[in-house]
Specification:
The complex is a heterodimer of chains A (232) and B (479). Chain A has 232 residues and is of the alpha/beta class. In chain A, 27% of the residues lie in helices and 22% in strands. In chain A, the strands form 3 sheets. In chain A, strands 1-12-7-4-2-3 form a 6-stranded parallel sheet, with helices on both faces. In chain A, strand 5 and strand 6 (139-143) form a beta hairpin. The termini of chain A are far apart. Chain B is α/β, with parallel strands linked by helices and 479 residues long. Chain B folds into 3 domains: 1-34 and 317-398, no CATH class; 44-299, NagB/RpiA/CoA transferase-like (Rossmann fold, 3-Layer(aba) Sandwich), CATH 3.40.50; 415-473, no CATH class. Chain B has 21 helices and 12 strands. The N and C termini of chain B lie far apart (68 Å). Classes of the chains: A alpha/beta (232), B alpha/beta (479). Chains A and B meet through helix 1, helix 2, helix 6, helix 7 and strand 9 of A and helix 2, helix 3, helix 4, helix 8 and helix 10 of B. Strand 9 of chain A pairs antiparallel with strand 9 (273-277) of chain B. Residues 152, 315-321, 344, 375-377, 379 of chain B line the site of iron/sulfur cluster.
Chain lengths: 232, 479
């Protein structure tokens, strides 16, 4: 008896009778190796970084995220503390253990208690670092990994994401391009286990078609854009 | 109870037309979805060009489906995933059960998956002592109510908040029976709390897949709630259920489809969460599943390749064709008696289950063409419904009464004088009957399904053609 796999392929090939097999193979291999966006909307091609950050901010806010902007990493803990205080949220958070975030010197902000690591069920606030921001729709691109665990994006009720301004790009394709394989130098892709594209806080319209925020994931998404993340 | 079989479409539709609550819900739905989609489409000048691209991508994939599936399998395995193949529902269910048994699973959380509904995974797991818990809010509600979904992306669209409160009181027994559950926010919060525990205790998480990416062997899910992500991040095992036509060549192609999906479905610029998963937890990762399984399910799709129904496999399950369909908008999803309702269901269900098991479906159409106009994948749904109709007629599956009527009509249509005589006779007869009912008819022969809930307006005693000729005579320019 043939396996399910063999049966499926036999049925498919039945439908492809008469196909030029050699040409089909060449076409498919070329398509798999191709690294060229099909059609990128004009709005996803901002001319300068400044326009990209402005477009990102407008679209993220439209998706019900809030956005703050600071100069350098040192200003981040203050911005986070302000946000939490203004929303009457606990001054305690799980923090992504990314070296870039260490530059923020969290320990100097005594009122804010951070614990480095993944989010646990009891965490009410999670702070993580975005890999990219996509101007097209105000979308954050979050990677899984030892420095940025995925649970931070989904378990806490409040998600705070730090986004260095130079990481804002126009289109989805641009955001993922550095992680894809390259047929020219033969390198394999370096995609992490998960790439999360996040556009605003969690929501549902499943009860009488009325939109409500905070279905299972975060109720609030706050983005802190850092203009000069490499700076002092 | 609505009969869950496509063979009962007529009876179910008649019942749905008389259901006031359902009619109210459907009224809201059509307005909301239609307006939002129109706005989103207008805001993106490239929207129609993206639809053309999207269609082209899927046509290319379907012409090379075997090759892309091979590439997906190879790259998924290279990334630490396990790929399983299932020819039909029974095989797919066995694969899932075996994985669950190997890890001693007791509870399984589930993200929304249409193919999961198609293979009826939930009752099967339950019968085998494993508790499946739907985590999409709408799916959770209908699971508690023990009913199937009635819309592709809004599964509980037919339920009102009082009914949801009843279901919650019945199932959340650990909470005070006196608690108020009158507003929507209270219902959402209660579901959030109840499901949070389930997410944390589950041994296995099952999700569907909106796309499979051959280039990297990744699976992609698109959700708004974040339930799919909690489902696949917290348990030790992640199982993805995907039908074989979900594969796309590379990430550029996925990006194109993503640009048309949310806009067509909910009118959002982008869904809240789009998640690309590649393999299992990596060394050093602080979270994520230890095993990543992808079950590739055929269940009748491979035999559509090379036939006039191949194009239906372009569908990305956005639901736009349902939202814009006058028949769906009148009878709702349950009347179709199949997992896939609306225009897409009318074409897909007979293809997957066989025409003899879905007879009424392709006929339940006004052929108004709205579904094809809004379908982001430009699937010619009305044309395909007509294909089914022709096959149905050819296979002599049409009732003798209808066959005779069609034959008589065909004869008359070839003889204009006979046609006009018949039409005049019918119009005159309806006019006479209508006089008694002040211009409305409570019953028309062979039109009971319509007249049970609404009256048929009586014609004015003349046929369309005679009226058309009438006024034109007066408009003739005088010599
Ligand atoms: S047939 Fe087209 S409109 Fe209908 S669900 Fe599929 S993709 Fe959407």
């Amino acid at each position: 008896m043939s396996t399910a796999r063999e049966q499926i392929f036999a049925a498919l090939r039945q439908g492809f009778r008469g196909r030029n097999e050699a040409a089909a193979k060449v076409g498919v291999d070329a398509r798999l190796a191709r690294r060229a966006p099909n059609l990128v909307p004009a709005r996803a091609k901002p001319e300068q970084k400044r326009a990209a950050v402005a477009a990102f901010t407008a679209m993220a806010e439209e998706a019900a995220a809030t956005v703050a902007r600071v100069n350098t990493m040192i200003d981040v803990p203050g911005a986070v503390a302000d946000y939490l205080r203004n929303h009457n949220l606990p001054m305690r958070a799980a923090l992504a253990p990314d070296p870039l975030l260490d530059a923020a010197r969290w320990e100097r902000r005594k009122t804010l208690e951070v614990r480095k690591g993944r989010a646990e069920a009891f965490d009410e606030v999670g702070i993580s670092l975005a890999y990219r921001g996509v101007a097209e729709t105000g979308t954050l691109v979050m990677l899984s990994g030892e420095n940025t665990p995925t649970t931070l994006n989904f378990l806490p009720e409040t998600e705070i994401v730090i986004l260095p301004a130079d990481r804002v790009v126009g289109a989805y394709e641009e955001a993922l391009a550095p992680l894809r394989s390259n047929s020219e130098d033969g390198s394999r892709h370096s995609l992490p286990r998960v790439v999360n594209f996040v556009t605003g806080p969690s929501r549902s319209a499943d009860i009488e078609q009325a939109l409500q925020l905070g279905a299972h994931g975060p109720r609030r998404l706050h983005i802190v854009i850092v203009d000069d993340a490499a700076g002092p | 109870m609505t009969e869950m079989s496509p063979l009962h479409f007529k009876e179910n539709a008649i019942r749905a037309l008389g259901d006031a609550e359902l009619q109210r819900a459907l009224g809201n739905m059509r307005q909301g979805f239609i307006e939002k989609r129109t706005k989103a489409a207008e805001r993106l000048p490239e929207f129609d060009a993206l639809r053309d691209k999207a269609k082209e991508i899927k046509d290319h994939v379907l012409a090379h489906l075997d090759l892309y599936l091979e590439a997906f399998e190879k790259n998924c395995v290279a990334g630490g995933g396990t790929v399983h193949w299932a020819k039909d529902s029974a095989q797919a269910r066995d694969i899932v059960l075996n994985i669950c048994r190997l890890v001693g699973a007791e509870t399984v959380t589930k993200g929304k998956s249409m193919v999961g509904e198609e293979i009826e995974i939930n009752p099967f797991l339950e019968a085998n002592g494993i508790r499946p818990i739907e985590t999409d809010l709408g799916e959770y509600i209908i699971q508690l109510r023990n009913e199937p979904p009635s819309h592709l992306i809004a599964p509980a669209i037919h339920v009102n908040k009082e009914q949801i409160a009843d279901a919650f009181r019945q199932h959340h027994r650990d909470l005070s029976p006196e608690r108020p559950l009158t507003d929507r926010a209270a219902l959402l919060n209660e579901a959030r709390r109840a499901l949070r525990e389930r997410f944390l205790e589950a041994d296995v998480g099952i999700t569907g897949a909106n796309f499979l990416i051959a280039e990297t062997g990744s699976t992609v899910i698109v959700t708004n709630e974040g339930n799919g992500d909690l489902t696949q991040t917290l348990p030790r095992i992640h199982i993805v259920l995907a039908s074989i036509e979900k594969v796309v060549p590379n990430f550029d192609d996925a990006a194109t489809l993503i640009r048309v999906l949310a806009r067509s479905a909910t009118g959002q610029e982008m869904s809240v969460y789009t998640t690309v998963s590649t393999g299992r937890k990596r060394p050093g990762d602080l979270d994520g599943p230890e095993q990543f399984h992808v079950v590739l399910i055929d269940n009748g799709r491979s035999k559509l390749i090379g036939t006039e129904f191949q194009e239906v496999l372009r569908c990305i399950r956005c639901g736009a064709c349902l939202n814009h369909c006058p028949v769906y908008g009148s009878v709702g999803g349950h009347a179709y008696g199949s997992v896939y309702p609306g225009p897409i269901g009318k074409v897909l269900t007979p293809a997957l289950q066989g025409l003899e098991n879905a007879r009424d479906l392709p006929n339940a159409s006004t052929f108004c063409g709205r579904c094809e106009e809004v379908c982001p994948m430009r699937i010619p749904l009305p044309k395909m419904m007509r294909h089914w109709r022709e096959q149905e007629y050819a296979k002599r599956m049409v009732a003798p009464r209808v066959r005779w009527a069609l034959r008589l009509w065909a004869l008359a249509a070839r003889l204009p004088s006979l046609y006009h005589f018949g039409a005049r006779l019918a119009a005159w007869w309806l006019y006479r009957r209508g006089k008694k009912g002040r211009g409305r008819l409570a019953k028309v022969p062979y039109g009971e399904g319509w007249t049970r809930f609404r009256d048929f307006p009586a014609p004015l005693g003349k046929t369309f053609q005679s009226q058309w000729r009438g006024p034109r005579r007066h408009r003739r320019p005088s010599p």
